[in-house]
UniProtKB/TrEMBL annotation:
Boundaries of every Flagella basal body P-ring formation protein FlgA SAF domain copy: 102-167
Matching PANTHER family: FLAGELLA BASAL BODY P-RING FORMATION PROTEIN FLGA (PTHR36307:SF1)
Protein name: Flagella basal body P-ring formation protein FlgA
Organism: Novosphingobium aureum
Domain of life per record: Bacteria
């Protein structure tokens, strides 16, 4: 008779026997607690590892969320010296963050701009023309108004505000 019982325990892993908890029953309790099946969004990521040999509890298992984020379930045997498990939960897929909205251009190609050249303790400015459109903080190509179109003295300047670009000197 003992031999038949041992064979039955080997043939049916996860069942309660020899003082071990029924892992299938614990999986069902976790699914009932989370409201979702194993592998489904909101349910346990995987079934409990069948190699676990958890001592059989005399008291009913206590299930709670591990944290306010509800990303894992804490399963505890409330008996003195009892065990506890942390079971990860499948979280819903997080959509990619929205792409940042590009800042609107405050200077358009062909706009008249003031080109300010600044260094330590001085600022000099002259009128110019924007050769590219740009938003505040962007670097665009500009040309001084005094330069003829054939002899273009293009330079790069940073957009400060509408109508003003700057070239900082070290």
């Amino acid at each position: 008779m003992t031999f038949v019982l041992a064979i039955a325990m080997i043939a049916a892993p996860g069942t309660a026997g020899a003082g071990f908890a029924d892992l299938d029953a614990i999986d069902r309790r976790i699914a009932a607690f989370t409201g979702a099946a194993v592998g489904a969004v909101g349910g346990a990521q995987t079934p409990l590892d069948r190699r676990l040999r958890l001592r059989l509890c005399q008291e009913p298992l206590a299930l709670t969320w591990r944290s306010a984020r509800q990303d894992s379930v804490l399963v505890q045997c409330p008996d003195p010296g009892g065990w506890r498990l942390f079971v990860p939960v499948v979280r819903p897929a997080v959509s990619a963050p929205a792409a940042p909205v590009p800042a609107p251009d405050v200077i358009a190609r062909g706009d008249a701009v003031a080109i300010a050249v600044s260094g330590q303790g001085f600022t000099v400015s002259q009128p110019g023309e924007a050769l590219e459109s740009g938003a505040v903080g962007e670097w665009i190509r500009v040309r001084p108004a005094s330069a003829s179109r054939q002899r273009a003295e293009e330079m790069r300047a940073r957009v400060i505000r509408p109508g003003l670009v700057a070239i900082p000197l070290p």
